[in-house]
Amino acid sequence: MKRIYCNTAASKRVFKNLLLGVSFFALAQEAAAQTYCTPTYTYNCSSGDDIKDMILNGAAGTMINNLNNPCPSTGYQDYTTSTAPNMSAILIMGNSYNGNVTTSYAYASESVKVWIDFNHNGTFESTEVVATLNAISNTSTGAITVAVPLTATAGVTRMRVRLVYTSSATSIDPCNNASYGECHDYKVTLQPPAPPNNAGVGSLISPDATPFCSNSMKEVSVSVINLGSNALNSANINWSVDGVVQPAVTLPSTLANYKDSVTVVLGNVLFPSTTPLQIVAWTDMPNATTDADHSDDTLKASAAAVLQGVDVHLSPRDTTICQGGSVTFDAGSFPYDPIYIWSTGSLDSFITVGAAGSYSVKVQNTLGCFDRDTVAVSLHPNPLVNSIAIVDNGDNSFTFNVIGAQNISAYEWDFGDGSTPVTGTGLPTQVIHPYTTPGEYTVTLTLSNDCGEIKSESVVLVGTPTGIGSHSALQKEIRLYPNPGKDYVTVNASNNVVISQIDIYTLTGQRVLNLPAGNKQTIDVSSWANGIYHMVISTDKGRLARKLEVIR
Q: Does CATH place domain 9-191 in 2.60.40.10?
């Protein structure tokens, strides 16, 4: 039949109605037997009888929003395979959803019927009609409300929206031939009602498929999804690596709607080799309540470093060397032709150093994987000593103190008379040694540490001496008075000796005064702290140590 174009809208509507009656009569029996049938039109949208806009606002922010779409030549368009945004919707069973179907036709002669195949059997049945519009035009809002029953079958199914030139949607069939109009099919996903509070883990976000090196730290993150009908304000996200439970994290932001998701960083994980690590993440306590559905709580995934990395451990580790010594650090050997870059500028796999400091190396292979390591070298100083201070106690015993000893780990006093040496660790302490036989004895102090030893010797004379060359005779040639002293003390030598230098030390070996040559010198001790001091007097006949006591 050929369409007749009349000069008036009224005559056009009369002609359309005649065509509709013929079409419905001829095809009524055939339509009922079709499964996901393809509806046909004799004249489709040639007079503006189109679906101009199709809008359905679904759950979780999904929607069908197909605006100003062109009418196909057959009048039928299948959008179920479309990958364009906003061309499918999620519908929760038991809920209702609002939308609009509008037309470009100027007169209120278009009607619309909407079906959803709730039982997924491929047939749009009368019980599956979810919305109708009667006698709409381009000035109509075309508002529809789609209710999804709780008895629907969950899953992906088809929604059909059919516009036909007719005054009532009652007569619109999902499959038959009509004169004028347009039909769309869309994909919708039916989901059962979500529990009020439910959180799940969706997927492993990182590490992703990008290859990375072993012996490297990688951020592990997952997507967390709101699978409840309430806004998800809080949840615990637990996780483990190869069965070892890690510290849990909390939801970083609110997920307002069903199926809203957020990426949650769980932490950093070391991938020591190319062997895959098993990552397990699971949620609990959504909105501080017990999760009602555990089927979607847990994600199990594996992640692996694809590239063989470098793991540098310098040998030896932090080291102490003695003055004048050296140490060699070895970075090891690795596959894939590594290069070595030391902080010293060396490009060898090892370096030898003899100075204190920090030394580092970067080793990188041809895969681009690298690692760094750093060691510290400290310098152990040699033992040092200034002198031995000796005080004659007047009863054939002597008090010995060490002046200016440093860097000492062990000591030994040998008093030269065959007695058992006095030993100890750390700095030498004051020691008093009695002699039983008169004579001249050489006192030897041996100081040592890990880097060596040093000796200091002094001579003591026990008994009645003859001649000024003896230690006791030298003591008689030099007077120290008053001792104890309060404000001033005087050192006075006879004409038989010449004083070349006087040094005064605390008991800890700190020098507090150094005086030049002079046989008579007065020393101001008025500002000194109370206590015992050691005075070392150097003369042309030898050195003499005297005890000086300051008392307020």
A: yes
Q: 113-117, 181-185, 428-432: which has the minimum mean pLDDT?
A: 428-432
- Dihedral of CA atoms 294, 295, 296, 298 in degrees, nearest 10, equals 70
Contact 279, 239 (CB under 8 A): yes
Contact of 397 with 417, CB cutoff 8 Å: no
| Model pLDDT for residues 477-515, shown as the tens digit of each residue | 899 999 999 999 999 999 989 999 998 888 666 788 999
Instruction: Judge contact between 523 and 513, C-beta under 8 A.
Output: yes
Please give the model's pTM, rounded to 2 decimal places: 0.49
pLDDT of residue 470: 52
**Count of H helices and E strands in the chain?**
2, 38
User: Which amino acid type is present at position 279?
Assistant: I
Query: Which residues are bridge partners to 513 per DSSP?
Result: 504
Tokens of 124: 């749009």
Peptide bond into 434 cis (omega under 30): no
Identify the residue whose tokens are 């932001």.
253
Task: Please give the CATH topology (third level) of the domain spanning 381-464.
Answer: Immunoglobulin-like (2.60.40)
Confidence (pLDDT) at 395: 87
For CATH 2.60.40.10, list the domain ranges present in the chain.
Answer: 9-191, 199-303, 319-380, 381-464
278, 257 contact by CB (below 8 A):
no
pLDDT > 80? residue 182: yes
Structure tokens at 134: 């009667």
Q: How far, in Å, are 480, 485, 528, 534 from residue 552 at the CA level?
A: 18, 8, 9, 18
Q: How far apart are CA 118 and CA 503, in angstroms?
A: 108
Are β-strands 488-493 and 452-462 bridged in parallel, bridged antiparallel, or unpaired? unpaired
Q: What tokens appear for 29 in the block? A: 């029996």
Domain with CATH 2.60.40.1930 in the chain: 466-552
Taking the CB of residue 357, how many other CB atoms lie within 10 A of it?
12
Q: Identify the CA nearest to 185 among candidates 161, 208, 202.
A: 161
Class of domain 199-303: mainly beta
- What pLDDT was estimated at residue 507? 66
Flag whether pLDDT at 21 surpasses 80. no
Give the pLDDT score at 287: 95
Instruction: Name the pairing type of β-strands 370-380 and 319-322.
Output: parallel
Q: How many residues does the chain have?
A: 552
CATH topology of domain 319-380: Immunoglobulin-like (2.60.40)
Rg over alpha carbons for the chain, rounded to the nearest Å, is 51
Rounded to whole angstroms, the maximal C-alpha distance in the chain is: 158
Q: What is the CATH number of domain 466-552?
A: 2.60.40.1930
Q: What is the mean pLDDT of the chain?
A: 88
| CA separation for the pair 544, 471 (Å, rounded) | 7
